[in-house]
């Protein structure tokens, strides 16, 4: 919430340092392996070694955690999550895809609206406030990056974060 407030005030501070996006992605995955296993979710990873950039390590860890948490919540039992990290020219690209029982009916950009929760989210036992993806996008932007979503019919969604390096 502090980051969203700071963004509204025009200052989302980032404590930048050189870091390995590849390493951060591997670490973030480790903390989600147990919940994925418990739900029978298949994990596919394609993490190119040595993808690095200058960014706030804590903010990128949080961004990865938010995206992975969202994927685990909405993938459903027996689904699939795929995380890739690649160097594309002068940009580092993080891509997270997950299957979902039903795609949202709103345009993908609506998913980043603060407090937006889709129909599937409102009926889940595990609640949320609808700010995770808004915070994730703010974290990307605070580090000169971007975060976008794309539907992959019939039952998958892709989140792509890109950062200069």
Automatic annotation (TrEMBL):
It is found in: Membrane. InterPro entries: BphY/WalK/GraS-like, HATPase_C_sf, HATPase_dom, His_kinase_dom, Sig_transdc_His_kin-like_C. GO terms for cellular component: plasma membrane. It catalyses: ATP + protein L-histidine = ADP + protein N-phospho-L-histidine. Its EC number is 2.7.13.3. The keyword Metal-binding does not apply. Keywords: Kinase, Phosphoprotein, Transferase, Two-component regulatory system. This is histidine kinase. It comes from Candidatus Acutalibacter ornithocaccae.
């Amino acid at each position: 919430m502090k980051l969203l407030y700071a963004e509204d005030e025009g200052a989302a501070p980032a404590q930048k340092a050189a870091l390995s996006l590849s390493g951060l992605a591997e670490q973030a995955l480790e903390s989600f392996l147990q919940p994925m296993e418990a739900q029978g979710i298949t994990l596919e990873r394609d993490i190119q070694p040595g993808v690095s950039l200058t960014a706030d390590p804590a903010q990128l860890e949080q961004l990865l955690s938010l995206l992975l948490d969202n994927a685990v919540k909405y993938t459903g039992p027996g689904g699939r999550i795929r995380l890739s990290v690649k160097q594309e020219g002068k940009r580092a690209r993080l891509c997270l895809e997950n299957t979902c029982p039903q795609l949202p009916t709103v345009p993908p950009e609506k998913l980043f609206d603060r407090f937006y929760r889709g129909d599937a989210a409102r009926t889940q036992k595990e609640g949320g406030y609808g700010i995770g993806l808004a915070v994730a996008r703010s974290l990307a932007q605070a580090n000169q990056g971007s975060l976008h979503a794309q539907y992959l019919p019939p039952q998958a969604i892709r989140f792509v974060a890109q950062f200069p390096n």
